Structure formats: structure tokens, C-alpha cells
Amino acid sequence: MNKILTLAHYYTIPEVQKLADHVGDSLDLALYAKENKADIIIFAGVRFMAETVKIINPSSRVILPDYNSTCSLVTMTDIDKLKEWRQKYSEYTHVAYINSSVEHKVTSDWIVTSRNVVEIVKYLYSIGKKVIYSPDRNMGAYLNYEYGFDMKLWDAVCEVHDKFNAYQLDKLFSEIGGSKYLISHPESPLPVLKKSNFIGSTHGLLNWIVNFKGDEKSVIFVATEEGILYNMKSKRPDLDIRQAPIYSGCKCNSCPYMKMNTVELVKRAQKEYVGFEIDYLSDDIIKQAIIPIERMLNFKI
Ligand code: 13P
Ligand code: SF4
Fold first, then answer.
1. How does pLDDT run across 58-117, given as a tens digit for each residue?
2. What's the pTM value of the predicted model, to 2 decimals?
3. Is 90 buried (19+), middle (13-18) or exposed (0-12) by CB count in 10 A?
4. 61 and 50 share a domain?
5. 264: domain range?
6. Separation of CA 207 and ligand 1 centre (Å)
């Protein structure tokens, strides 16, 4: 009898999260898959995350419900140009955000997620390394600004977080009385991050909400993908939690790739094991990609 595990990212719709054995951020899902060995993993998330799960669990079959669920940080990065860039800075340490293709990961020395990037880059600077950071320009710019790093940055963005807008936030804040907070994911643009009361990974943002002890009448704006607002509101139904505005003033913003994980496709994958199987990674590429990933996994914060 095959052991089957369904994993869902926080950015999927609530109905899909309810079909999963475990819901989490990208790092959490990969670690959960490692700890709870399964023959077949149905991964309701995006392709780079499913690839990471496969690299960490090569003996499991990993199935993504929809072939098209990619990520703009992956599609905006031309691998040949990235290799040239890496070559240009060959004496630098290359830190790559986990939101990257396998080919991208093998060019790097360290993989990071938004949960551990600050500590890992601080560590590298503390031992005298010069660092290049890819692919997220916004996250890199924030790290350089906040911690005084001088990392060279690759130029790609998350098409979802990049839409949050500081001007619209100011406008909204001036219309609302009482206390207000803004918490943001570091993939957001720097002007938005500069206005934030807290900046953290999806996991960190959720924890911030869970532990919020301020005035319950406060309005809390969240600059990240809308899916996680479901988790936030379920954990703290007493709070007024709203999504931050984008350039059009709309308080709406969702990842089209995460939303490709429809209830129908996830159920079909669970029943018939069909979808897009991550079965194209050679042993050689898995062997190369695991090196920077394991560096991250073995790094103790
Ligand atoms: P996490 O690594 O926090 O799950 O975030 C992934 C992501 O795609 C953010 O937009
Ligand atoms: Fe990629 Fe942005 Fe979607 Fe996250 S929210 S998967 S970074 S496009």
C-alpha cells in the first residue's frame, strides 16, 4: 500500500488547504516531506517548491497538480545570462533564494528562504565573504538597505509582491483613524518595506499575527499573498486583518500560479496520481542541487 501525502502552501485557496495533510511555507513543506517519508507526494504549490521537495526526497514520486504553476522569479531569470553574471563575480559567494529553478540552484553556493536569509547573509559577511544575491531584487535591496550589505543583485521580482504600493498605503492610512499596522513580506518593494512595522517570511508574518497583543481595534494591513489571510483570520478571528493595497488602490492581490491548484486538480491528483510529475531531474543535477540546499538545512540560526 502506497503512503500518500498531500502538502499545500499557505497561498493556496482555503478549500485546497483543507485537502492537505500539512499546510506550511516552502521550507516547512520540504522538511515535513523529509520527516514523513511518503511514496507519493501531491504538492499543491508551485514548481520550484515541488522540485525542492524532490531533491530532498529523491525516492518519492512528487506530483504537482498543474504543469503551469511556476513563479515569476523563475520565469524572469534567463539561465544563460545568470551563468554569465555568476562568472563575472566568480570570486563572490552566490546566495540564491529558494524561489529559483534547479538549474539556477546549481550555480549557487547557498540556498536561502525568507526565513533564514538574514542570518545566513550576516554569517557570510562576518567571515569576510563578498556576496551576490539572486533572483529577488526587492529582497536583496531591502537586505542591503537594512543591514548595510553591499550585495550585487540579480534583477527579477515576484509579480505579486511587487504590486504593493507605498503611495496607496499612505492614502489609505490617512483615511483610517485609530491605530494601524503594516506587516510585509520582504519580496515587497523597498518603499513599502520602509513603512512596515514588521518584515518577515510567510511563517514570520503568521507568528506576528498569532502573538499580536496590541489594541484589538487596530487595523492590520498585510503586504503578502491573500491566501495566508485565511490562516491569519482563522488563528485570530478577533483582529481586523486586511490585505495591503496595490498600485490601483485595490486591496486584492493573489498569485495566479498558486491558484492553479484547484480543488478539482488536487482531488484528481490524490485519486489517480496524475498531474505534472517531477521526474525529469537527473541523479547528477540532484547531486549538485542538494549541496547549497544542505548548507542551508545544516545552518543553525
Ligand atoms: P515562503 O518561502 O515563505 O513559503 O514564500 C514563498 C513565496 O513564494 C513567497 O512569495
Ligand atoms: Fe512566485 Fe510571487 Fe507567486 Fe510566491 S507569490 S510563488 S514569489 S509569483
1. 999 999 999 999 999 999 999 999 999 999 999 999 999 999 999 999 999 999 999 999
2. 0.96
3. exposed
4. yes
5. 4-70+258-279
6. 15
